[in-house]
Amino acid sequence: MSAKLIKGTEIREKILEEITKEVAEIKEKHGVVPGLVTILVGENPASISYVTLKIKTAHRVGFTEIQDTQSEDISEPDLLALIDKYNNDDSINGILVQLPLPKHIDEKKVLNAIDPDKDVDGFHPVNVGRLMIGGNEVKFPPCTPAGIQEMIVRAGVETSGAEVVVVGRSNIVGKPIANMMLQKGPGANSTVTIVHTRTKDLAGHCKRADILIVAAGVPGLVKPEWIKPGSCVIDVGVNRIGMNEKTGKAILRGDVDFDAAKEIAGSITPVPGGVGPMTITMLMRNTLKSLKFKLGA
Ligand code: GUN
């Protein structure tokens, strides 16, 4: 049997259409649109391409967007002052500082300087705390975990009472998605296990999973025999394993042996085209939410 493919590219299109429609309605009713600023420090090529795509997507859904590019040697106080400027700018609803930052800048200090009510990445400790409490407290779920949960729900996979196993314990994916899946509420109510590099029986845990979420950053880590037949497999890994000499593009592989896994799982995300496109989509949703909170809409 071949698993149903959960395509992030298709889900992204649907959600961006929903957001575009809502932005137009808010504009009509309140005369404002969401404003997003992305702050890029330096010239890291991967960061430039992420930020370019974020800005392009913001433009597509009708936001006003600012790309604020700063030189690699901006001082920490100057960067903090820039964030403060946007914290106090009424036309800005979302502030995103692209990571990683140069070594002379304390990333934690910078993330903590963003107004939690404009922290559309969901990385500020206040938003991490809100996520942990759950329910109505949650303002901005971090974008990749929010995208994962959305994919699971839109694929029609039952989460209530499901055994969810999360491989990886990062602050950006593993810890928040585990927390989100165990909360009370729709798309959650799961029984969650987090496994990591020190876990004794990785395979044994994975084999129990009705929903297996893999964010380890190790290509092909999850073997087909670890997958429970009929389960839902979400592969968050994006690993460059080489270069296509004809196209000059990187060859990407996930953390799961996709070709074999798709014959066992009930549903599975491909790499590329799975979780990847969802992250920026959720950033747009968080920025729209930020304006709606402000308007009380
Ligand atoms: N760098 C890589 N991914 C991300 C992200 O989701 N947010 C920010 N701010 N920086 C990143």
Characterise the protein shown here.
The chain has a six-stranded parallel beta sheet. Strands 3-2-4 form a three-stranded parallel beta sheet, with helices on both faces. A two-stranded antiparallel ribbon has the order 9-10. It is globular and about 55 Å long. The termini are far apart. The chain is built from ten helices and eleven strands. 40% of the residues lie in helices and 16% in strands. The model has no long low-confidence stretch (mean pLDDT 97). Strand 9 and strand 10 form a beta hairpin. With 297 residues, the protein is α/β, with parallel strands linked by helices. The site of guanine has 8 residues, from strand 4.
Give a brief outline of the structure.
The protein has 297 residues and is an alpha/beta fold. The protein is built from 10 helices and 11 strands.
Number of strands: 11
Please write the string of helix (H) and strand (E) elements: EHEHEHEHHHEHEHEEEEHEH
Biggest sheet layout: 6 strands, parallel
Bound molecules: guanine
Q: First CA to last CA: what distance?
A: 46 Å
What fraction of residues sit in β-strands? 15-25%
Rg is 19 Å
Per the principal axes of the C-alpha atoms, what is the gross shape?
Answer: globular
Give the key terms.
297 residues, 16% strand, globular, binds guanine, three-stranded parallel beta sheet, alpha/beta, 10 helices
Topology:
Elements: E1 4-5, H1 8-30, E2 35-41, H2 45-60, E3 64-70, H3 76-87, E4 94-97, H4 107-113, H5 125-133, H6 143-154, E5 163-167, H7 174-182, E6 191-195, H8 202-207, E7 211-214, E8 232-235, E9 239-243, E10 250-253, H9 258-261, E11 267-268, H10 276-295
Parallel strand pairs: 1-11, 2-3, 2-4, 5-6, 5-7, 7-8, 8-11
Antiparallel strand pairs: 9-10
The structure holds guanine.
Residues 50, 96-99, 121, 143, 279 line the site of guanine.
